[in-house]
Amino acid sequence: MPYLYQNFMKLLIYPCMVFCLLLQTHIGLSQYIYSDVKTNLAFPVAFTMDDDAKFYVSMKGGAGAVPSAMATVEVIDTNGVTLGQIWDFTDSVETFYERGVLGVELDPDFNSNHYLYTFYNHKSPAKIRIVRFEVQADTGVNPTIILDIDDPNPAGKHSGGNIHFRPGDPDYLYVSIGDRGVEANATDLSNPWGKILRIHKSGSIPNNNPFYDDGDPLNGNDDRIWAYGLRNSFDFTFSFLNDSLYATENGQNTMDEVNQISPAHDYGWPLCEGTVDYTGSCATPGLTAPISTFGSLVSSLPSVTGVIFYDHTLMPEFTNHMLVATFTDGSIRDIELGNAPVYDTTFSSQSITDAQLTSLVDILQGPNGCIYLLSGGFTTAGKIVKMCPDPTSVEYIKFDELLVYPNPAKESIHFDESFQQFKIYNLEGRLVKSAAQVDRSVSIDDLPSGWYALKGLKDQQVFYGSFVKQ
Ligand SMILES: [Ca+2]
Ligand SMILES: [Ca+2]
Ligand SMILES: [Ca+2]
Hints:
This protein has two domains: 3-24 and 398-469, Immunoglobulin-like; 32-395, TolB, C-terminal domain (Neuraminidase), CATH 2.120.10. Helices cover 4% and strands 43% of the residues. It has helices at 3-19, 110-113, and strands at residues 32-41, 44-49, 55-59, 72-76, 82-85, 101-106, 115-122, 127-136, 139-150, 163-166, 169-177, 195-200, 225-228, 236-238, 245-249, 255-261, 272-273, 276-277, 292-295, 304-309, 322-326, 332-338, 345-352, 360-365, 371-375, 382-389, 412-425, 431-443, 450-458, 461-469. It has a four-stranded antiparallel β-sheet with strand order 1-26-25-24, with no helix packed on it. Strands 2-3-4-5 form a four-stranded antiparallel β-sheet, with no helix packed on it. It has a four-stranded antiparallel β-sheet with strand order 6-7-8-9, with no helix packed on it. The radius of gyration is 24 Å and the shape is globular. The two termini are 23 Å apart. 43% of the residues are buried. The structure holds calcium ion (3 copies).
């Protein structure tokens, strides 16, 4: 091999040995190891974790046909040992279809006040309730009802049911509630159905909510409404990048969605499903479009459920990405958002399908950077699965899909593609340059000498490459 060529290849290959780890793509063979933490969970729906790495798992209590399952929030450690139950809701919960004990969340001051909140469908009278408990020795004491809504809707579906605190607004609890099977509910500001609500964690209604009129939710507007036009936003999260609320939304026939939820916005249901007209037109003025959509699979929608932002270096391919769990196909959608710092567009979206799981209802990031998946819903064989990187998978990584020339380069790099979005990362994996609508060349004048990786998005396909700046 000619000396010059040999050294040039070293320039490419040696940094790649380090850097390919940072920009690996998802290919057929698994990069991840999946291990069961806990099996035989009966009807789990959602989970959260405290600073001692204890899981709090909501168990909806059956699905109507199996009424004997305990409706509770179970406390489980990372070895899969059950430590306790917060409360036995079994005699008071409505478990038919999607109803039951659903959301669970810890107070931002959990380490000092030990408050845990849970959302459930009360049976008689029919209500949606949020109850706060004080956790002592892995059980709940001093139950206090903080939200108590009469629920006249007979349908078993679309309770939503997740509850979370916003890091930048820590005294307020956000609540997702579906349309309860009545499409027109979603745009009716006099009721809480098909909405995201915001209440004070004591249960009081904040007077700076967007539709606050008189503080009485039964008169005029339901003053608790934060956003509307939602069919069944199952779960949501807040991005640590900009504190924005991102919610999964389940479609009827053609598209699931992820929405960036802003106060007073109308997310289109039932006029619009994803980006497809439903009972009206998606072009109706005033509707906010989803930032991601997921089309129908062979026979059904993926059914988006839990959502997180990943904030760890253990799996750098996910760092700062949104990860969405899906119920029907058991996959994880790995979504990198674009248009920083607003993050209201999708830069890339890929599916991780190698887990061979089904019925994913929730997803968490553990303290060690591994991901925990909750499989459950309508089954007594629910489980918590841990997903960690497989250190032996490096050899399978694809790289250099995009030919860059000249290489090394001085002022600009060229390639035979045009990209909607384009990003350049340095050897530390930091984003150093991003551009939109790139047509076959990018100036690198402003970059210091060194080795760089690049990532381009074209028609939903992601290309990777590398170059050396002289
Ligand atoms: Ca009112
Ligand atoms: Ca929508
Ligand atoms: Ca969740």
